[in-house]
Structures are given as structure tokens and as C-alpha cells.
Predict the 3D structure of the following.
Amino acid sequence: MAKNPDKKPDHKVVATNRKARHNYSILDTYECGVVLQGTEVKSLREGHASLADAFATVDDGEIWLRNLHIPEYHHGTWTNHTPRRNRKLLLHRSQIDNLVGKIRDGNLTLVPLSLYFSDGKVKVELALARGKQAHDKRQDLAKRDAEREVIRELGRRAKGKL
């Protein structure tokens, strides 16, 4: 069955890591698949997940997502999953090798930005990031406030209110 190239992929966002863009400067992003159990997918379809403390590590040439919290499926039985278990991420070998090289070179880390469904499959947007210093965070906030003031002033002038 051929896919229609004109059709946009179905994206249903389950969870986002809102603090990631504040605490890290994002250098590059990757879309990864996730190895999950059945009850984890059912819990995600209900919209339950938390990326607040999640991070990714490279172990033995594989990338693992750690501290992702997917609560137990409430209709599950004794076969329910563990909420904070380590989950394997699926990437091409060349992408993994590229990430390992970049992480080893500088003080970079892998941070999940969002967890979503794409065409019925669970995906994670993984970012290669560098931690921000406190003064960088303050500069970003000041820049955002200045841009907001400029937009407000332009809106006032457009309406004729000086």
C-alpha cells in the first residue's frame, strides 16, 4: 500500500518538555521511534505522560530514554508496565554514531522535547543540546521582553494610539 505524498502526517502531541528550551540551547533535533509495551501505548493514547525529568543516554551503541514517566494503564491487569522503566530509542546506525561523536567532543546532552503519535506510531523528538548558563537565560528573557514591547508599540501605532 503506497503512502500519499500530499497527505501531511498525523501528529497528536502527548507530552512536551517545556523547560528544555529554557535550560538548554538546542543544536539539532532527531525524530526517534520508541520501544514500548502494549499497556504503555494505551496509556499514551489516553494522553498520560511526563517528560519533566527525562533524558537520553548512549549505552553500548544504543540510545536509551530514561525517567520518562508513563503511568500504569488503569484497565491493565498484572501485566501492566513499570511507570519509569528505561525505554530503547530507535535510530539509524549512522545517526547514533553521529550523536556519539558529537556528545564525546563537547559537553552536549540528549534531551527529549516532545512525545507524540505520528501515523499511529509513538515518536520522540530528541534534541542535541548544550546547557545554558544563568546569564544566558537572563539574556533570552530580556530579548523576549524587548521583542514583546516592540510588537505592542507597533500595534498601538497601527491603531493610532500614541
About this structure: The chain has two domains: 11-131, 133-162. Residues 134-159 form the longest helix (26 residues). The first strand starts at residue 11 and ends at 16. The mean pLDDT is 83.
